[in-house]
Amino acid sequence: MANQEDVFKKVISHAKEYGYVFQSSEIYDGLSAVYDYAQNGVELKKNIREYWWRAMVQLNDNIVGLDAAIFMHPTTWKASGHVDAFSDPLIDNKDSNKRYRADVLVEDYVAKIEGKIEKEVKKAAKRFGDAFDKNEFLSTNQRVVDYQEKATTILKRLGKSLENEDLADVKLLIEELEIACPMSGSKNWTDVKQFNLMFGTKLGASAETAMDLYLRPETAQGIFVNFLNVQKTSRMKIPFGIAQTGKAFRNEIVARQFIFRMREFEQMEMQFFIKPGTQKEWYEKWKENRMKWHLSLGLGEDNYRFHDHEKLAHYADAAADIEFRFPFGFKELEGIHSRTDFDLSKHQEFSGKKLQYFDTEENKNYVPYVVETSIGLDRMFLAVFSNSLKEEELENGTTRTVLKLPAVLAPTKAAVFPLVKKDGLPELAMEIINDLKWDFNVLYDQKDAVGRRYRRQDANGTPFCITVDHQSLEDQTVTIRHRDTMEQQRVAIADVKAIIHKEIDMKSWLMKMS
Ligand code: ATP
Question: Which residues of 91-128 are buried (b: 16+ CB within 10 A; e: fewer)?
Fold first, then answer.
């Protein structure tokens, strides 16, 4: 696989060809930045959701779940600040008529500088071999230090201008850096404007009485408005958390990156309610905990990094992203935010209802502080899927396309093949299927030569193939083939289930977090 763009194209076409992700309403030429999950995609997505839910709700006795409605009272969004401040700075190129997020143009420019640093590091690592000390190199090599300084200065200025709503300076920055439209190369830009990302809709039968509503742009507010209901009915004591997964909607300005940035997407969020003053400690704890969750899936430590925010959202006193190495570079996968008491205080103010917690140890009421972890399920899907897709050169000179999904997340855990379509082999294969299907997803395939069936399942991401042959009829054994190593073992039919369970058991994967 050659350059980044080719790799990404391959990811998108593979997702379509193997029934993972389709463009929404494709027969009508699609709807921009809206996608449907197909037969395999829906399973992968469900498994990722489950992996997150168990890590949050099942493994923490002080975190409970919630499923709040997408529609919420419109005042929610006034209180949360979304009506006034949930917007992105947009800029148009006058020659190509293409629209961009001004902040993203600058961030992409910085990413290029970071790419140069990475290149220097790689070169030096090669030159110095075992003696290479990356940290020392980063702090002493003049060229790298200069790059780093430039990147930091740019991001600081961008952060400051956005915080001060100084959109003229954002434009000036784009001009000073001589950033060109990626499509046309033109540097002829309009002014920067703010654009609200919420979708509006109406509730009610007649136009006069209808109430203006918004489709929720994040799931978090459903948690905040239910904070006291949950706390009282669950009798939770601070610190405790509420977790929720569900759809969110944003009218994104630019959405050209497949399921990375969608207009309808799913979030997995957890709001952790804490005593004011303890936010630093919990923020660090949740950063660490969330990174452990990611690393437990084995997608490679080098593919993650933290990015601490220079520019803080209107509600935050500290914020960091967990970035992942997507096919188009390192980008945000998850956000961890210390939200102070902003949300609860605002809802208290706008609703006139007290949203306070009585701390029996302190013997007083207070509005709790919140640390939030927020990850996009679709982005996580893309991280897992794109990282798993490999093209491998085999010893015999051929190549195979294999989707090395973590077995715990794979849509289908095993495929069962009769070697031939006769002599009672299909019947025995079906017997095995009928036994395994109670435990996990299995499929039956009898078409084509076994080698081709293996390839099909490799591309599908199925971790195990089980082949039934004539010997199976005699001694009740089958061949089990492992997707990643292509190793084949002869095993008793009675042992198949246990062998597969060992590899897919969610408990063992989650235990890697501890
Ligand atoms: P970005 O800077 O990429 O627009 P954000 O900082 O606005 O993201 P948050 O509001 O912190 O994102 O949302 C939390 C998570 O929700 C993000 O880390 C991301 O995984 C996911 N997410 C946000 N917007 C989208 C989207 N349009 N499509 C898919 N996932 C999204």
Answer: bbbeebebebbbbbbbeebbeebeeebeebbeebeeee
Q: Which of 265, 310, 343 is the pocket-test mutation for ligand 1 (most atoms within 8 Å of CB)? A: 265
- Which are the contacts of 262, defined by CB distance < 8 A and separation ≥ 6? 33, 34, 35, 252, 255, 378
pLDDT score recorded for residue 309: 87
How far is the C-alpha of 214 from the C-alpha of 446, rounded, in Å?
50
In the chain, the number of structural domains is: 2
Residues 481-499: tens digit of each pLDDT: 999 999 999 999 999 999 9
In a domain, 77, yes or no: no
Which residues span the domain enclosing 117? 87-196
| Paired tokens of 325 | 């190495």
pLDDT for residue 255: 78
Q: What is the 3-state secondary structure (H, E, C) of 430-449?
A: HHHHHHHCCCCCEEECCCCC
What pLDDT shows up at residue 172? 97
Report CA(376)–ligand 1 centroid distance (Å): 6
Looking at 146, 177, 196, the residue that finishes a domain is 196
H/E stretch holding 264: strand 264-274
Q: Which of 155, 432, 503, 483 is nearest to 312 (CA)?
A: 155
451 CB burial (10 A radius; 0-12, 13-18, 19+): exposed
Specify the pLDDT at position 136. 92
Would the CB of 266 count as within 6 Å of ligand 1? no
Which single residue is written with the structure tokens 């190509």?
96
The span from the CA of 323 to the CA of 345, in Å, is 30
Q: What CATH number has the domain bearing residue 437?
A: 3.40.50.800
The reported pLDDT for the residue numbered 1 is 45
Q: Is the CB of 262 under 6 A from ligand 1?
A: yes
Stretches in the chain below the pLDDT threshold 70: 1-2
The pLDDT value given to residue 85 = 84
From 169, 196, 223, the end of a domain falls on 196
Q: What is the pLDDT of residue 96?
A: 94
| 3-state SS class at 76 | helix
Whether 337 lines ligand 1, by a CB cut-off of 6 Å, is no
Torsion 207-212-217-221 (CA) sign: negative
Amino acid 138: pLDDT: 93
Cα separation, 185 vs 93, in Å, equals: 10
Which residue has the least CA distance to atom 25 on ligand 1? 261
- 354-369, pLDDT tens digit by residue? 999 999 999 999 999 9
